[in-house]
Amino acid sequence: MKQKINSKLPKVGTTIFTTIGKMAKEHNAVNLSQGFPDFNADPTLLALVQEAISDGHNQYAPMQGLYSLREIIAEKIQSLYGHSYHPESEITITASATQGIFTAISAFVEPRDEVILFKPAYDCYEPAVELCGGIVVPIQLEGTEFKMDWQALKNAIGPRTKMLIINTPHNPTGTILSGADMLQLQAILRDTNIVVVSDEVYEHLVYDGQAHESVAKYQDLAARSILCASFGKTFHVTGWKMGYCAAPQNLMAEFRKIHQYVVFCVNHPMQHGVAQYLKTPEHYLGLHQFYQQKRDYFLSAIQNSRFKFKPCSGTYFQILDYPDITNEPDVAFAERLIKEYRLASIPISVFNLNNEDNKQLRFCFAKTEETLDKAAEILNKI
């Protein structure tokens, strides 16, 4: 007799990233779908981790993370955003930002609590809320430029609202929240008990002279927020799955209650390597120039194509609009691009409320110029 299982996530299937990645491999496609670089990390960082391994840092790290790493993270946040987090009680090293986000949601969301998030949204948020018995309250960003609807946020807040999840720079759209946006958000939340989870994994990838507006820059927001960041995204080592969370002590104490039983601790030698690497601020302060050059190279290469675009303001993702090319649904068009043209991208509708289809695809430009040239040649033929 086959065992009957009641799924805790009955509506969740295989992620679009897995589906598209599998198709890209089967058809030997140029892969601009998943958000990972196809070039190696800085040899200096790799050497620092190798040194840590050789020096014997191969057993459990402290549950909260290596103190020297937490200390330099605190210094970095203070320098960039002007907010002081105590390394002992307010910063925790995580096994990726995704784990940090999951842990933050698990620490505070109870059955029937409502969690507001903005769509399109990165796909790890909603399942974590549902696993906790929470209710997702989605707000669709407006139009093809994904503007914030602040009145919709005000209308969505109710007596059961426990948490709000924000993401800037934003995946999958490449947009950013402005200083005015953050002040508006701070004012809306000021008289509430809502906890904010702020996904800031692309904090150093903001372009055209604009600034990253972290919750840490805003006193009232910082007091209610769990900031989630990623070393994998920052230093071209997504496979390391390593990040951190920063939050006021009262929030971090609850966060750590869950964290210690989810992973206990994070890769020890890599923590030593990253701690040393962060001592040179240029290793992260120059990243916006590095990736803006790649964005501009890619967009210049496809400027005569039939795809339309507005240069992204952050992340290493570029949205391309294709209404002038075909009326196909974006999922179907993305699949056809792989099968017929051998180019992989991510359709945006899968992240939207009610799978709203605005005929947009997301392309990752964290690639070598050789890869971007191959992709541009294909796009220009369509």
From TrEMBL:
GO terms for cellular component: cytoplasm. Pfam families: Aminotran_1_2 (PF00155). Coiled coil: none annotated. Keywords: Aminotransferase, Pyridoxal phosphate, Transferase. GO terms for molecular function: kynurenine-oxoglutarate transaminase activity; pyridoxal phosphate binding. Residues 29-378 form the Aminotransferase class I/classII large domain. InterPro entries: Aminotransferase_I/II_large, Kynurenine-oxoglutarate_AT, PyrdxlP-dep_Trfase, PyrdxlP-dep_Trfase_major, PyrdxlP-dep_Trfase_small. SUPFAM superfamilies: PLP-dependent transferases (SSF53383). Its cofactor is pyridoxal 5'-phosphate. Transmembrane segments: none annotated. PANTHER family: FI04487P. This is Putative aminotransferase.
